[in-house]
Design goal:
This protein has about 100 residues and is of the alpha+beta class. The protein is about 40% helix and about 35% strand. A hairpin with a 2-residue loop joins strand 2 and strand 3.
Amino acid sequence: MGAARVRRRCVGGKTVDVEVEVEAGRLRRVVISGDFFAYPEGALEAFEESLSGVEPSRDEVLKVIRKFGIEFLGASAEEIADMIAEAAELAEREGGPG
């Protein structure tokens, strides 16, 4: 299992942190934090939980974002998906705690 974190200032001006754990080529755990907003309220936590077992590709993550209908203020869905995919790639490459 590997873990990694990515931090980025998004185009909307907000800072986002993404922490992932990857196991056997699938997302195991995802935590997204920062000074952005996500609507509807409570959707972010449900979204994070639903990513467990998902292939860590940008397209697969975007499918889950769309399924939940999450709107991000200060960051875009594409930026969030890119960050998750990037962190997963780092975690797989390092293969250990990040």
